[in-house]
User: What shape does this take?
Amino acid sequence: MKLLSRRLPLTPESTHDSSLARSVPDEIESGLDPFPLADEYALTIHLCLSQQGVDGNQMRVSVRTVGNTQGGLDIYAGFIKVLRWTPPVCALMNQMPWVERRIERRLRQTGLLQYSQFGGLWFRSPGALADELPRP
Assistant: This one.
């Protein structure tokens, strides 16, 4: 009795069931496009910011990889660019630790942290907006 056997790789001509191979088209389209993780992170961050009353014309959100973990997972960070200093943006900046915890909680609910790691939020304000800064 032979327990281990060597299997030959399948060639395009050889299949296990040739009748099945003829009835299935070469390419099967599911209609679903792959959605990159960076886009999923950006959507989640944007939803949390919009719940705080900040529109897309006040802040711009972008996400990119900033490194890898020892386990090989990508680390994604959110970069937020302030476009206009408005009262909702100022209120958001005052509540940022709370908002960042909320974003991390939402990311855990989506399951993204099983495949990657969140590196936090980074803010940037262009120099042209320095004259617009709200006065205390």
